[in-house]
Amino acid sequence: MALAPQLALFASLTLLSPPLELHTDAVDPQRTETGLRTRVGDSLDAWTITVHPGPTTDQVEVRLRAPDGTTRQRRVALSGANRDDRSRELAASLALLMDEAPSPPRSSKPAITPPAPRPAPVSGWLGLGPRIEAGPKLVEGGVDVMGGAWLLREHLQPIASLSLGGAAPEDMSLFHLRFGGGIAAGAALPDRRIWLGGHVLAHVLRSRARDLDRFTVDWMSATEIGATVQYRGRRLFLGARTGIDLVLPSRTVHGHGARIRRGPAQWMFGLVIGVVFG
């Protein structure tokens, strides 16, 4: 009769399939495994769990071997009044202990590379406005069509320009066409609306002089050197510049009642009103 409990325990263990091994009769093996599989599913098959009696009748010693080979040992108290209650209690405790284990490494996925930042759009301006030049005994007026762009953190501006101008001193008329471009260098004030700098613009100048009975056409170079200030709103652009216009070679134009010398240096002032883009 003394061997009956051990034989019953041995019979129950032989019917219990791995990976759960129960070496205690405090719980029902089949109910414990069923309750544990209900909680963790087929992942139980990757574990090895061994349960031994504890130092007291209401405690068991649990040893868990995770799929990665790591092991851990815990003492679990069972407070259920019967084997069914203790079986459900042990299954719940084993599920919690399995959740505490680090998850097995998942298959690595290629890292998603964030899209490269798009370059900031180029910001620039386009406009037109009046121009005036003054030299010895000669004042000229005209109109400029100009455009530029702010580059290198708004410290540099390439500028293109086309100008028409002329004068009518005494009995003569002068007409000028210039085209070219250059560069302006400077910086914006902290509010970024005002830009200050200096500029150098080189042009090809076609000058035509006409008196009462004849006219002459000359090709010259005109280089504008000076300072510029610009205001840029959300769409509005205002620019002003002043400096010296160097015309080479200088020309002397003779009329019936006048003798005009153009160049080599004349003071200039120009305004541009336009739009901001970008």
Structure description:
- By secondary structure, the protein is of the alpha+beta class.
- The chain contains three helices and 14 strands.
- The protein has helices spanning 4-15, 29-40, 83-100, and strands at 20-22, 48-53, 59-65, 71-77, 123-135, 138-150, 156-167, 173-188, 194-210, 215-232, 236-248, 251-254, 259-262, 265-277.
- A hairpin with a 4-residue loop joins strand 9 and strand 10 (215-232).
- The N and C termini lie far apart (98 Å).
- Residues 100-121 are annotated as: Disordered.
- Residues 102-120 have a biased composition (Pro residues).
How does the SSE layout of this entry go?
Layout: H1 4-15, E1 20-22, H2 29-40, E2 48-53, E3 59-65, E4 71-77, H3 83-100, E5 123-135, E6 138-150, E7 156-167, E8 173-188, E9 194-210, E10 215-232, E11 236-248, E12 251-254, E13 259-262, E14 265-277
Parallel strand pairs: 1-2
Antiparallel strand pairs: 2-3, 3-4, 5-6, 5-14, 6-7, 7-8, 8-9, 9-10, 10-11, 11-14, 12-13
Helix pairs in contact: 2-3
